[in-house]
Design brief:
The protein has 150 residues and is an alpha+beta fold. The protein is built from five helices and seven strands. The chain has one domain: Uncharacterised protein PF11572, DUF3234 (Trna Endonuclease, Chain: A, domain 1, 3-Layer(aba) Sandwich). A hairpin with a 2-residue loop joins strand 1 and strand 2. This is DUF2750 domain-containing protein.
């Protein structure tokens, strides 16, 4: 049974708010690397799942991912390295997927922009290595968006 759009939207918003507040996201790490799967019905596109809380990630460490461990990713690294790299490689993010793999599948730059806007809206900051501030990273991500639309 699929989840309704409101539930999926709420899980996405929870991810954005928690990531901005806690300055971290969660993934599942195994001996061979990070958990990933195919996006929707497209076997050409890799989906890498991320969660806002350790418990949500741990709940998905089953079946093919039963040997995987919830692992935190600092938010700055997630935004600068993961999201930009995924955007360049054409991978998508799975956000707060549940044990049935229901959740939002989105372009990596889109989730980064949403988290960065949330950080700005709560007058917070995030530690970035390659950018002097949030606005500069937003500008770079917007360039990726513009290039994809051309």
């Amino acid at each position: 049974m699929s989840q309704d759009t409101a539930t999926i939207d709420n899980k996405y918003q929870l991810f954005v708010e928690r990531a901005a507040a806690t300055k971290m996201v969660w993934g599942l790490m195994g001996k061979g690397g990070w958990a990933n799967t195919h996006a929707g019905d497209d076997e050409e596109v890799t989906l890498i799942p991320f969660w806002s809380d350790r418990a949500l990630a741990k709940a998905c460490a089953r079946d093919d991912w039963k040997s995987f461990t919830p692992t935190s990713i600092p938010l700055g690294e997630f935004l600068e390295t993961w999201c930009t790299g995924m955007a360049e490689e054409g991978n998508v993010a799975g956000v707060n997927l549940d044990t049935h793999m229901h959740g939002t599948e989105t372009e990596a730059y889109a989730i980064a922009l949403d988290v960065l806007e949330q950080i700005k809206s709560i007058n917070s900051t995030v530690s970035l290595k390659n950018y002097p501030g949030v606005d500069e990273l937003i500008a770079d991500l917007n360039q990726i968006t513009d290039q994809e639309e051309e």
